[in-house]
């Protein structure tokens, strides 16, 4: 479907613990992007509680959408399409965003577009750097996902590898919890690790030389065992050595993937892409290998609705509107098309 220039899309994101809405023009100009994080509501439980998340989305979504529309200057008017994340994510949370998006699309008489959350993360980078050259290797690392993807063209992906157990962010969260650093664990470990020695403890790098899959659960056990056997060890040294092990595996595999597929660049996406050590190491690797590195800003790496609106534009452009019968798909995978 060819879309006229100036197509304004309202994106809605409620797949996990961020309630977000944004208005984006032609997949590249962000008019507004509002994110209301529920992190404080879940912190005392040490992780996202699905029931609390859905209830909070119900309360927060209307004011968040209203703010996104007002900030975009859409007051007596309406957008040209509404896109919402339909998966993967928590089913109760997804349903809140999907129902709101369908209702708005019906009232305004504009298309509804079902958006895959993983595809949305890939489009986060394009919002900040529209001229990114393909093919690209994308390292998508968040609390729920760890994927190494070859983006050959728009909407044409090859999943090179994924985690066989814990997601990278999940490993950060679990280790931080064990070390008493609170939730979310990634930013806490990142901070504490700055005062530690990354070479203090040689934690394992699972399946480093084999393929593109990842495994982080053994590393988490290794941290627990080490701290039990060496109670004198300092938290900053454990945090820095753990972070080094995760980053080492992520960067080694992403770099090898780029070399073996002939990719022009390497892009980071997902919450863990905010990690300072990972960002530094990816930049160094790309300079050494002659690759274009693109590290989206921290706010674009974590969940937001601007990336959902951008992905909705591409889907609408390629496939046209989605049916209003589309429901929530908690285990949705990346659409692989040839
Ligand atoms: O993409 P995201 O906001 O939510 C989803 O999981 O979809 O990612 C959140 C994850 C959490 O596990 C959090 O601990 C991790 O990203 N994270 C980090 C950092 N900031 C957030 N991990 C390592 N270092 C960070 N600076
Ligand atoms: Zn996400």
Keywords summarizing the entry:
single chain, 338 residues, alpha/beta, five-stranded mixed sheet, globular, binds 5'-O-[(R)-(carboxyoxy)(hydroxy)phosphoryl]adenosine, binds zinc ion
Can you walk me through this structure?
The structure is a single chain. Helix 8 (235-261) runs parallel beside helix 9. With 338 residues, this protein is α/β, with parallel strands linked by helices. The mean pLDDT is 95. It has helices at residues 39-43, 50-71, 91-108, 117-128, 168-178, 185-193, 217-229, 235-261, 276-289, 298-301, 306-319, and strands at 8-13, 18-25, 29-37, 81-87, 112-116, 136-141, 146-153, 156-162, 265-269, 292-294. It has a 5-stranded mixed sheet with strand order 3-2-1-4-5, with helices on both faces. The chain has a 5-stranded mixed sheet with strand order 8-7-6-9-10, sandwiched between helices. The chain contains 11 helices and 10 strands. The longest helix is centred in the last third of the chain and has 27 residues, at 235-261. Residues 16, 142-144, 169, 172-173, 184-187, 190, 270-272, 274-275, 302-303 line the site of 5'-O-[(R)-(carboxyoxy)(hydroxy)phosphoryl]adenosine. Zinc ion is lined by residues 117, 121, 142, 270, 303.
């Amino acid at each position: 479907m060819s879309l006229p220039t100036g197509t304004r899309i309202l994106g809605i994101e409620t797949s996990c613990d961020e309630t977000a809405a944004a208005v984006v023009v032609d997949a590249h100009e962000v008019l507004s992007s509002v994110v209301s994080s529920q992190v404080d509501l879940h912190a005392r439980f040490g992780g996202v509680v699905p029931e609390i998340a859905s209830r909070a989305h119900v309360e927060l979504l209307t004011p968040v959408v209203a703010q996104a529309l007002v900030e975009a200057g859409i007051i007596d008017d309406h957008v040209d399409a509404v896109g919402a994340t339909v998966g993967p994510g928590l089913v109760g949370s997804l349903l809140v965003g999907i129902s709101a998006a369908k209702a708005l699309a019906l009232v305004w008489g504009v298309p509804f577009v079902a958006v895959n959350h993983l595809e949305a993360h890939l489009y986060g980078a394009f919002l900040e750097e529209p001229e990114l050259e393909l093919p690209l290797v994308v390292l998508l690392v968040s609390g729920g996902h760890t994927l190494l993807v070859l983006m050959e063209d728009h909407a044409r992906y090859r999943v090179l590898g994924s985690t066989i157990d814990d997601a990278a962010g999940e490993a950060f969260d679990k280790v931080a919890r064990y070390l008493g650093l609170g939730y979310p664990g990634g930013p806490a470990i990142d901070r504490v690790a700055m005062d530690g020695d990354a070479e203090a403890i040689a934690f394992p790098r699972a399946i480093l030389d084999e393929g593109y899959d990842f495994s982080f659960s053994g590393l988490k056990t290794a941290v627990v065992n080490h701290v039990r056997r060496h109670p004198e060890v300092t938290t900053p040294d454990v945090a820095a050595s753990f972070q080094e092990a995760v980053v080492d595996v992520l960067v080694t595999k992403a770099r090898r993937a780029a070399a073996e597929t002939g990719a022009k660049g390497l892009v980071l996406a997902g919450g863990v892409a905010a990690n300072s050590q990972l960002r530094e190491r990816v930049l160094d690797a790309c300079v050494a290998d002659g690759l274009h590195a693109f590290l989206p800003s921290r706010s674009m790496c974590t969940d937001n609705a601007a990336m959902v609106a951008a992905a909705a534009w591409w889907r609408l452009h390629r496939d046209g509107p989605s049916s209003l019968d589309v429901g929530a798909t908690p285990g949705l995978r990346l659409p692989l098309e040839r």
